[in-house]
């Protein structure tokens, strides 16, 4: 597939007003995407677990655009309220995607969005938000062209979501998604995420992700700026090579269910992501003292119990704890006894591997 395959070739006429709702999950990367080229092309491949509970629900009500406006006309409500701060990001999204969704010029869109997780919890909502919006817009195209098959619809949704926020392209499908061309995963692409097609070891099918909310404040640096700092980063070349290597290794681990190898690889990826941040120019640090306390406690718990609990991090201070479902009882007890003390207002969210975006 090339970018041109996503430009519709058939003419469109507007259809009767309607409404589409999508629910898209967040995702957590095991091998991280950090660094990009123009047009949201990743500098290295990544792979993630699609989540289940942390979701964005987006409703797109479309009506015939009677105004003079060129391009897409839209209004946006977040949790029932106008959200002018989000509008520039949406405008950029619609500008970038107009070529692939030309029929949107026929409509006025009323977009309403809400998250299942607490607002400003420090959980990045752009992945689930952009995936939900992209999936709704592809569904609208599908109402024009009912022949569009599911695989193409998913690829196009992922392609468009990527143009909103890179990692969002991994939130369309479940339960493990690969994004970024690499020789270890056939059909992998820089343009969209694809489901991991090998047989996943049973243990990963309902793997748990408990997200410890360490810091809810504004991030010190946006991920857009962070990605940019990989340009000219002294360790970038090695890092990108390492990500390819890690992808090869994690593929084996996801098939075999080797949890020791999983723990080592996933934690090393999280540490590398933050090491890149700490060694860029300018350098920055998104971990907080409580992030480090949690990591040390996790290591101690693992040493003492032998339970393969591991952590990973996004571009922020919150900690994702990954573990097999059969250990939920002991891990949740450990979280309640020791780790909630490091969470802002004692907050954490229990999630697990999920199936991807649902349209209704
Ligand atoms: O999707 P973005 O541009 O917000 O980048 C997010 C990158 C990380 O979350 C740090 C890693 C990843 O692969 O999700």
Distinct small-molecule ligands in the complex: (3R)-3-hydroxy-3-methyl-5-(phosphonooxy)pentanoic acid
Number of helices: 9
Point out poorly predicted stretches.
none
CATH class label of the largest domain:
Alpha Beta
Briefly note the structural class of the backbone.
alpha+beta
Order of helices and strands: EEEEEEHEHHEEHEHHHHEEHEE
Annotation, overall tally of beta strands: 14
Number of domains: 2
Q: How does the overall form come out from the CA principal axes?
A: globular
**How far is it from the N-terminal to the C-terminal residue, by CA?**
27 Å
What is the averaged pLDDT score?
A: 95
Beta fraction of the residues?
A: 15-25%
Helix coverage percent of residues? 25-40%
- Oligomer category: single chain
Which CATH architecture of the largest domain would you pick? 2-Layer Sandwich
Q: What would you report as the Rg, rounded to the nearest angstrom?
A: 20 Å
Write down the CATH topology of the largest domain: Ribosomal Protein S5, domain 2
């Amino acid at each position: 597939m090339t970018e041109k395959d996503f430009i519709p070739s058939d003419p469109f006429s507007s259809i009767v007003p309607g409404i589409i709702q999508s629910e898209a999950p967040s995702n957590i990367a095991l091998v991280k995407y950090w660094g990009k080229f123009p047009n949201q092309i990743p500098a290295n491949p990544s792979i993630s677990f699609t989540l289940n509970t942390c979701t964005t629900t987006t409703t797109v009500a479309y009506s015939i655009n009677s105004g003079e406006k060129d391009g897409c006309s839209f209004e946006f409500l977040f949790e029932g309220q106008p959200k002018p701060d989000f509008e520039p990001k949406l405008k950029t999204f619609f500008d970038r995607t107009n070529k692939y969704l030309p029929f949107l010029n026929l409509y006025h869109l009323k977009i309403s969005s809400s998250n299942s997780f607490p607002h400003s919890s420090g959980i990045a909502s752009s992945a689930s938000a952009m995936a939900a919006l992209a999936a709704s817009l592809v569904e609208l195209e599908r109402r024009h062209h009912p022949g569009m098959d599911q695989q193409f619809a998913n690829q196009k949704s992922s392609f468009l979501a990527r143009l909103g926020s890179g990692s969002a392209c991994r939130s369309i499908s479940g339960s493990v998604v690969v994004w970024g061309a690499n020789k270890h995963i056939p059909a992998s692409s820089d343009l969209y995420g694809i489901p991991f097609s090998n047989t996943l070891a049973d243990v990963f099918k309902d793997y748990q992700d408990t997200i410890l909310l360490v810091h809810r404040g504004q991030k010190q640096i946006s991920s857009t700026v962070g990605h940019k700092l990989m340009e000219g980063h002294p360790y970038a070349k090695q890092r990108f090579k390492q990500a390819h290597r890690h992808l090869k290794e994690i593929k084996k681990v996801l098939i075999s269910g080797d949890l020791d190898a999983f723990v080592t690889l996933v934690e090393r990826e999280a540490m590398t992501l933050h090491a890149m941040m700490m060694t860029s120019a300018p350098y920055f640090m998104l971990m907080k003292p409580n992030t480090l306390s949690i990591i040390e406690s996790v290591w101690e718990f693992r040493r003492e119990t032998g339970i393969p609990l591991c952590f990973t991090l996004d571009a922020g201070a919150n900690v994702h704890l990954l573990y097999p479902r059969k250990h939920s009882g002991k891990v949740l007890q450990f979280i309640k006894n020791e780790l909630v003390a490091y969470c802002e207002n004692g907050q954490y969210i229990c999630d697990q591997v999920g199936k991807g975006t649902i349209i209704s």
